[in-house]
Amino acid sequence: MSEREHISVDVVVIGAGLAGLASALRLARAGYSVRVVEAESGPGGRARTDWHEGRPVDRGFQVAFAAYPAFREFVREVGISGEDLRPFVGGGAFFDGAHWSQLSSSPKSIARFGALSPADRARCVRLAAELRFASPRTLLARDALAPTTEAFLLDRGFSRQAIDAVFRPLFGVIFLDRTLAPDPGYFQFLFSMLVRGPAVLPADGLGMIADWAAGAIRQAGGHFEFGSRVAALVREADGPVTGVRLDDLRQIRARAVVLAVDAPAARVLLSPVDPATAGGIPTDGASVTSARFAVDHSLYHGRLILLNAEPDTGESPRIDLLCQTTNVNRHGAVGGPHIVIATSIGDSDATAAGIEDAVERQVHRWNPTFPWASAAQSLGVVRHPFAQFRPLAGVRRRLPGPRTQVPNVVLAGEFTTHPSLEGAVSSGVTAADIVGRQLG
Ligand SMILES: Cc1cc2nc3c(=O)[nH]c(=O)nc-3n(C[C@H](O)[C@H](O)[C@H](O)COP(=O)(O)OP(=O)(O)OC[C@H]3O[C@@H](n4cnc5c(N)ncnc54)[C@H](O)[C@@H]3O)c2cc1C
């Protein structure tokens, strides 16, 4: 038996996404021996970053809101300064098929926004003022105000035109779901985050947070096993779990386990020891495909995203969002390559080449003179069949939360809270606090 087969620790954290990392950091800093087991070759999970010629290339386009409370605290704890969170000062530019209109989160920008009628602008300013100072917890609890976000907006008097031209393209790419079916409590939480501060990207891409967190965990004495998949939780009879078994049959003994994997993997690992809780893990996921490119000439200027606000024509795949991320995270850098990420929401059976062709067609519609074919080099297409769970009416209320029926197995991950970076980080902190109390 090798030395590694005898490992025994206080806590095994399964999964090095932001939930697992937030948990591991808190536990390691509290003095517990912590081992993080991650199937991939590095940390970050859905928030990982690749690199191309010194430029960060996220695996899918995503942003954090500067106002996310637990996320902001976590970023500070891992040592990333506010200056390294680069803001989308320009907000978003909406193209309706004929015109561009730009919207940032300031009340002034909303009051001037050309894609909304004066009456809808007034409704928007009112909603922003109402939500700006409300506590995130209160907003998240307002899930039963209406059956869907769309119904909530109609109740608030917004016109169908405002919903289709502004809310659907914008919240479609945040929910990763253009139906606007998510519950209104989650919508209000996100809307309040939007009006409290800018969307931000770390200077070295989203993966910077996971990389720095992993460094901080090591500094606090924690260890990582990358490229190791947990095959099962080990439990004797009806007692507590005694550790985990890895794919290569090695075992790690632990006094407690934080299960911080994605929802589909959590169901598989939890079912044999706690089928009741596993049965409550959401199965309905939003899917998204991201196409990444390195581009020789800058496609556009400004620290903003481009949104497809044209009505659905049934064209598939549809490109919903495009962002030259280096405008934001490498703001001020001279020359290329520029990194462009395009998002297509929903299931698409298009091949990678089909998605890339759709991006080329979209760029041509938006900027007909741009020489995309000669300027853009593909950096690969990434599919996320379960990018995040869908918070439809009642779903968040039925989530399992952190506790399971096996007291020393605690759940973390967006699927225990709400489907965001904030949800992941806050769930990790909660899980660590529960484990800390158990271990004493
Ligand atoms: C394309 C895309 C866009 C998004 N956009 C946004 C956005 O703009 N803003 C926002 O706030 N959120 C966004 N999200 C959601 C956000 O990324 C997630 O909510 C968050 O990253 C989830 O973190 P997590 O730690 O819960 O899970 P994950 O990041 O999935 O981490 C789980 C980890 O567990 C590992 N694992 C799984 N099974 C095993 C096993 N058996 N053994 C060992 N390891 C295992 C996985 O490899 C993974 O690293 C987006 C997600 C995607 C995919």
Features:
440 residues, alpha/beta, FAD/NAD(P)-binding domain, 3 domains, seven-stranded mixed sheet, 15 helices, binds flavin-adenine dinucleotide
Write the layout of secondary structure elements.
Layout: E1 8-14, H1 18-29, E2 34-38, E3 49-52, E4 55-58, E5 64-65, H2 69-77, E6 85-87, E7 91-95, E8 100-103, H3 107-112, H4 118-132, H5 136-140, H6 149-155, H7 160-175, H8 184-196, E9 199-202, H9 207-219, E10 223-226, E11 230-235, E12 241-246, E13 251-259, H10 263-270, H11 275-279, E14 285-295, E15 304-308, E16 321-324, H12 326-329, E17 338-345, H13 352-366, H14 372-375, E18 376-389, E19 409-411, H15 421-439
Parallel strand pairs: 1-2, 1-13, 2-10, 7-15, 13-19
Antiparallel strand pairs: 3-4, 5-9, 6-9, 7-8, 11-12, 12-13, 14-17, 14-18, 15-16, 16-17
Helix pairs in contact: 1-9, 1-15, 2-15
Bound molecules: flavin-adenine dinucleotide.
Residues 14-20, 37-40, 45-47, 60, 62-64, 229-230, 260-262, 265, 288, 290, 384, 387-388, 413-414, 419-424 line the site of flavin-adenine dinucleotide.
